[in-house]
Design brief:
This protein starts with a strand and ends with a helix. By secondary structure, the chain is an alpha/beta fold. Helix content is about 45%, strand content about 15%. The relative contact order is 0.16. Helix 1 packs parallel to helix 5 and helix 3 runs antiparallel to helix 4. It has a six-stranded mixed sheet, sandwiched between helices. It is globular and about 50 Å long.
Length: about 150
């Protein structure tokens, strides 16, 4: 079992939660990004640097995950691909995507993308709050407990 991180856009505080969890539970953690990443020295934490480009990191994660692996991502299309490969997907705000919720999330994402492409300013995501961080840590702990 591996936890994969779509690391280019993953908030630093979420990575720190993941680093501590990987050490505490001795779970393999692999961060994938198109830039060099800092990670603490650990037998459980790995990085993969991919070439720059659209969806290169996402494609590498989808290529390498195994059924049952967990992927940390806010990228809805990546989460959908992970679920289709019988993996689990958790966003940095603590929402675990599922087969039941992913199609609705994809539809909303596509709608918002259409609005943006037509010139509507939809704003960006809200700053990660303390409640979001706690929700993420709790969801991660629940997932890890189910694996043990």
């Amino acid at each position: 079992m591996t936890i994969w991180v779509d690391a280019d856009a993953c908030p630093k505080v979420v990575k720190e939660i993941l680093f501590r969890a990987a050490e505490r539970t001795r779970t393999e953690l692999t961060l994938v990004a198109n830039q060099p990443l800092y990670t603490p020295p650990s037998h459980y934490i790995n990085t993969i640097q991919v070439a720059p480009g659209f969806d290169v990191a996402d494609n590498r994660i989808v290529q390498d995950i195994q059924p049952g692996d967990l992927v940390i991502t806010a990228d809805i299309p990546l989460a959908a691909e992970v679920i289709n490969k019988d993996g689990h997907a958790l966003n940095p705000r603590g929402e675990m995507y599922s087969r039941d919720t992913i199609s609705q999330r994809l539809s909303m994402r596509n709608f918002m993308e259409e609005l943006r492409s037509s010139g509507v300013n939809t704003g960006g995501p809200a700053t990660l709050s303390q409640a979001d961080r706690q929700a993420f840590a709790n969801a991660l702990d629940r997932w890890l407990a189910q694996q043990g």
